[in-house]
Amino acid sequence: MNFNSGDTAWILVASAMVLLMTPGLAFFYGGMVRGKNVLGMLAQNFVVMGIVSVLWITGVYSLAFSGTGKFIGDFHQFGLNHIWQQATGFEALTIPPLVFCAFQLMFAIITPALITGASADRLKFGAWALFTGIWLVLVYAPVAHWVFSPSGWLFQLGAEDFAGGTVVHANAGAAALALILVIGKRRGWPKERMRPHNVPFVLLGAGLLWFGWFGFNAGSALSANTLSAFAFVNTNTAAGAALLGWIVVERLRDGHATTLGAASGAVAGLVAITPACGFVSPMGAIAIGFIAGVVCCFAVGLKNKFGFDDALDVVGVHLVGGVLGALLIGFFGTKMTNGANGLFYGGGWTLMGKQAVAVGAVVAYSFIATYIIAKVLDLLIGLRVTEEQEVAGLDLSQHAETAYETASFNDGSRFSITSSGN
């Protein structure tokens, strides 16, 4: 096989950048929870890195990318047997099959990690670890096969998802909604104020996510070429436009723009451009980003209207943003970049119809399957910590640690100094 050393080097670097997104996500989420739960949040994200890394190699990669089935792969590359063979439909790749496997692993890691923000402050650590493994096999693997594998039925339909708007973000967002409906609301929500305990952590996490997202999106070209450059530029452009859109809404609605809103807006734009980054022009990226910033800013309020406790706005940002980005390809997609023309480029409603089918199928399957998985696990082992453990915080009750040895955190930013060792 003729492999291109430049392409190979780029995808290896992109893989490392995508892996960095999960610790970035941990800090992004960790800063938004109360101080007594920050280690619990970081631990849930880090354990995903371990669980998925092992399961991906032993079988999930094969289920996602091997074989010719329309709905699920086979076990041809179980345990990375036959890894010298390219994944089905990727025979023209100029990178070694193991590099492609490593790159896709990083997507599989961050997808369940995204769910942790919705269920923050109340999940048992062991139950979360078990849920992650089951969810990866039963939900992520088939959805990735449908959309990313050339054998998958949504890929063959012509639905476009360049880097995971449906596979990663809409999938995780729908799963997050199902999980929180099973485990219920945090004790005291929504009456108690549960403020972020460390907003600088949130900004740090957002910065790491923004950086890693260049590998996430530009790396999905699977080559170092003009298409990867379009994906790179579109990613940054949409993030900036969404940041502005979010803080404009805050300023007009609330009278002030917040740093937390700026970080959330940037992430919303990154989410929305993920499926579209290789299919739209930079001007289309500005439109998609700004729309996502405005819509997601309003969407995070849905939890108050409908009464579901999405602690860190995974539904409002990742489900809504992922769905929005996938559907907007139907308007802004252009052959001048890649893919098919959308409505605004003379393509009619055909592409929009395909995008709607993909979004509907992924969201419905992920929600239903996750609800069943969570319900069964809750009945068998219980997903939620006890009331006493929740009051004490996940750091102490699940890990026998505290993030801040000299501070007793209450409702977020405020804390009282106590004697050393308490």
UniProtKB/TrEMBL annotation:
Short name of one Pfam family: Ammonium_transp
Annotated compartments: Cell membrane
GO cellular component terms, semicolon-separated: plasma membrane
One term of GO molecular function: ammonium channel activity
Membrane spanning residue stretches: 12-30, 42-64, 95-115, 127-148, 168-184, 196-216, 228-249, 256-273, 279-302, 314-332, 352-374
Ranges for domain Ammonium transporter AmtB-like: 9-404
Keyword list, A-Z: Ammonia transport, Cell membrane, Membrane, Transmembrane, Transmembrane helix, Transport
Alphabetized Gene3D superfamilies for the sequence: Ammonium transporter AmtB like domains
NCBIfam families named among the record's database cross-references: amt
Family of the protein in this entry: Belongs to the ammonia transporter channel (TC 1.A.11.2) family.
Protein known as: Unannotated protein
Species the sequence originates in: freshwater metagenome
